[in-house]
Amino acid sequence: MPSYLLAHDLGTSGNKATLFTTDGELVRSTVYSYGLNVSAGHRAEQNADDWWRAVCETTKTLTETINPADVEAVSFSGHMMGCLCVDEHGVPVRDSLIWADLRSSEEENRIRQQISDADYYLLTGQRLSASYSAPKLMWLKANEPDTYRKTCKMLNAKDYILLRLTGAVVTDPSDASGTGLMDIRNLQWSDELLEICGLARDKFPEIIPSVAVAGRVTADAAAQCGLLEGTPVVTGGGDGPCAAVGSGITKEGVANLSLGTSSWISFASRDPIVNDGMISFSLAHIVPGYYMPCGPMQCGGGSMSWAVRELYKDRTDDKNSIYADVNRCTSASGSPVGAKGLMFLPYLLGERSPRWNNHAKGAYIGLTFEHTREDMIRAVMEGVGYNLNMILEAFNRYENRIGELIVLGGGARNPAWLQVLSDIFGLPLNVPNYLEEAASMGAAITAGVGVGAFRDFDIIDKFLATVHRYEPQACENDRAVYREMQARFDECYHALEPIFNKM
């Protein structure tokens, strides 16, 4: 009889639950959606009980055709940088402030008055931002003192589910590094930052390894979710590091490129990466002894989705046919390398790496009567590529770590775009057999390592296989065009930056 690993990926819009065999086979997956309360003042909240309901319902769905006794372990990936306050009984005091909640800009500035951005970056591996958990809890302390007084512990999404399943009040280094309060090198809460933020240390859970068994399913939880009492629950981690594991980023020399709505480049490193301009940040990895340096851009795949939606509004045929035409934009009959000089800045949602400018805007630059829809699509492909290439260059400036990339996300289904990116980067791109299951696969593998079903994270090779590989094909003339356009891309941004800041 097969044995199974159950993984949950608690995302912003819903929970994706996936059942794998210990032989690496994806048996079944299901999604349970839940709401997000967004309101004025950059506020974004979720009801933690919705997370629990989603976990229970998806668990029952996935285990209805198997014997729950064959589930060796369950683990979790979850959205990070949240702030869920629970009382001494583990009951939420209020809805959770999730990663997208940015109401605490004043608290961010209060921290900055006491520690420089550079020192904060060295200590935490992060850029100081209102998106992290620490300013959020500071805001609650200042504006909802009763909430802070009633708070026994502050948790992230997956930590709350661990509590509901096992009664354990814990977190892991990857989620803790997204709070903005953890010493990235010691993997412990920073007393210096707790004092700066005016937050009590006892309001934060114990940090244990991602592969540690946090506890076992209690009788009460078993009755609600369908797992057997006593099933091991492995701690798991934040969604980004879990996705890194699920894409094969488990040791040095391997890097990934995520081409979802937001996009990023990340890899595994024995040390946090510190670079000039704080272009990237570092999280603690799921894999013990490693970190996950990451350069995230706000709107990579999202820029392509926007361009296709807006430029092909006249098309009423199916999506596959439209994307077939999109792929032809870079063919011999489409737009040439450099898109006839047309430049696109992919800053439709502001930008994180490498600009870190919330005021940045998207722009087509150099439009003429000569340009076609194909040129406009190609300019988007290239513009996202130039931005990502700046992140690559920031990593490689300090140590030549990245020799090829594993590509995930919806953009990995666009062969023309992948060839453009390979040519701009001058690197091979590998597309694996699973594109959308990276986070849940990472959680499943973490569960397997945690209970000894797998010796180590090298088991990923049993789960993943490369199905497509893109090698750089640009001739010397085309490479010269890309180099020129790359330089022009940076010049265009800096020329417009003062205008963006006024808009």
Please, could you describe this protein's structure?
Helices cover 37% and strands 20% of the residues. The protein has 503 residues and is α+β, with helices and mostly antiparallel strands. The strands form 8 sheets. The protein has a 7-stranded mixed sheet with strand order 19-20-18-17-23-24-25. Strands 3-2-1-6-16 form a 5-stranded mixed sheet, sandwiched between helices. Strands 4-5-8 form a 3-stranded antiparallel sheet, with no helix packed on it. A hairpin with a 3-residue loop joins strand 17 and strand 18 (263-267). Helix 1 packs across helix 6, helix 2 crosses helix 4 and helix 10 packs across helix 15 (438-450). The mean pLDDT is 95.
- Strand order across the biggest sheet? 19-20-18-17-23-24-25
- CA radius of gyration is 23 Å
Average per-residue pLDDT, rounded, comes to 95
Distance between the termini: 63 Å
Structural class, by secondary structure, is: alpha+beta
Largest sheet, described in full? 7 strands, mixed
Uncertain segments of ≥5 residues (pLDDT<50)? none
Q: Got a strand count? A: 25
Which percent range describes the beta-strand content? 15-25%
Structure in a nutshell:
With 503 residues, the chain is an alpha+beta fold.
